[in-house]
Design brief:
Order of helices and strands: HHHHHHHHHHHHHHHHHHHHHHHH
Number of helices: 24
Largest sheet: none
Radius of gyration: 22 Å
Number of strands: 0
Helix content: over 70%
Length: 449
């Protein structure tokens, strides 16, 4: 058995196990352990520990962002600022459709980074969804669908900077365009998946796109029981959430505005969060909203509330490293090669990136690995480079959007206060509709352009 085939078997077992047991972190860890046993035999445990150590060290920025955002959320809630904001926004969100559409609009406005988008809007809107008796699954769906898809389609975002730079390193792109951003802008109109994902969630907010699968069952649960989240998601909702409580809206707005402005101006989300925390300190302690001891206790407890995300992301990234060691990417490229042709190449590129990003939970990582392979192949075959760039972006976006253990899905679910499996299953029909239509789009465009 080849290493790549064994990686596919591990991923298949992982997906089935996670869906059946609803225990995502454990299945991810088991998958990475099985991979290490296959690779290292008697040294499997020591090598697995080394991989985890490497993953934790390599992603220290992400752990700090997640943890400190948890601290910020805890402080905003303790100051009652979230209640004040919810009471004001609730005047605009007078019905279900307006509430959903408001979330969509906020997702468009906070386009600079998907983490900033997802985490910020979840804090803003969660209480309002509870007041309107809308299932949290609908909030998580809108958060995830306006996270990466929006960032991909606007050239002034962290995603555009990453992908533009990645593409411009290849001669087939740098020889045709004056800059990395010039190349990326040409690809944006053909990024079919993010366009379709946004269109679908827009129609969903208007009530035109029907409730499907687990999303339909979530709405039925609210109708029958009044519970906006399931029993399985109760553990993600420790705080007292009373949307009618009084609170000073400026305790919420000032730190959040600082967070957004610094994030947009510097593209440094960690700096933005640290600055917002310092603003909370200056805003709350002198005004007796809380004393210094309570401030630091809340900072620590908010950070620890994000430990569940931390462990799940460590497990997902460790599995990705194991899949790299098993040469999963090279295996899938070799499988795809026999059907490559200039006309089919964009569709195959989309499918390949989508599968890789989905099974590994790594969008940027897989894109960085596969792009130096696909774009030279594109030039050799005479395929359309603009379509190929767009297909790579779209495939990666699909993986980021649909995979139930990718960072985007985990953060969207946590921000909405539900489990990542419930979020992933409730949005799966919509992501698959967008993916199938995108694949057809690249198939047709490959012959037309």
């Amino acid at each position: 058995m080849t290493d790549g085939l064994f990686a596919i078997i591990i991923i298949a077992l992982l997906v089935v196990g996670a869906i059946v047991t609803r225990r995502c972190t454990e299945c991810l860890l088991l998958g990475s352990v099985l991979g290490c046993v296959y690779l290292y035999h008697g040294q499997a445990l020591s090598q697995w520990c080394q991989l985890i150590t490497q993953v934790v060290a390599d992603n220290a920025w992400l752990w700090l962002v997640c943890g400190l955002f948890g601290s910020l959320i805890a402080l905003l809630q303790a100051s009652k600022g979230t209640f004040g904001f919810s009471n004001i926004i609730a005047k605009v969100c007078r019905n279900d459709r307006r509430t959903l559409f408001t979330s969509f609009v906020l997702g468009i406005l906070l386009f600079v980074d998907d983490y900033l988008n997802v985490l910020t809007i979840g804090v803003c809107m969660r209480g309002i969804y509870d007041k309107r008796k809308l299932p949290r699954e609908s909030l998580a769906f809108i958060l995830n669908s306006t996270g990466a898809p929006v960032c991909v389609l606007l050239p002034i975002s962290t995603w555009a900077i990453f992908f533009g730079s990645l593409f411009y390193e290849q001669e087939v792109i740098s020889s045709q365009y004056t800059s990395a951003m010039d190349a990326y802008i040409h690809a944006i109109p053909f990024c079919f998946y993010p366009i379709l994902a946004l269109l679908i969630v827009f129609l969903f907010t208007l009530g035109i796109m029907p409730k499907l699968g687990a999303m339909k069952r979530a709405y039925q649960r609210v109708e029958e029981t009044g519970r906006v989240y399931s029993e399985a998601s109760k553990k993600y909702n420790h705080e007292e959430n009373n949307p009618d409580a009084e609170g000073n809206v400026w305790n919420f707005l000032i730190p959040m505005l600082v967070l957004v402005v610094i994030g947009v101006a510097t593209l440094d989300i960690l700096l933005a969060i640290v600055t917002a925390l310092l603003v909370c300190l200056v805003l709350y302690v002198p005004r007796k909203q809380m004393d210094m001891e309570e401030f630091f206790n809340l900072t620590v407890s908010g950070f620890t509330d994000m430990m569940g995300i931390f462990f799940m992301l460590v497990a997902a990234f460790t599995l990705k490293e194991v899949c790299d060691l098993l040469h999963l990417t090279q295996f899938l490229v070799a499988v795809a090669q026999p059907i490559l042709s200039p006309h089919l190449f964009p569709a195959v590129s989309f499918l390949l990136l989508g599968v890789l990003a989905f099974v590994t939970g790594s969008n940027w990582g897989m894109s960085a690995v596969v792009t130096p392979i696909l774009l030279p192949m594109c030039a050799a075959l005479g395929a359309n480079p603009v379509l190929t760039m767009a297909a790579i972006v779209s495939g990666g976006t699909f993986g980021s959007h649909a995979c139930f253990y990718t960072d985007a899905t985990i953060l969207s679910a946590n921000s909405a206060g539900i489990s990542n499996m419930e979020h992933a299953m409730s949005q799966l029909p919509y992501t698959m509709i967008a993916a199938i239509l995108s694949l057809l789009g690249y198939f047709v465009a490959g012959y037309v352009m």
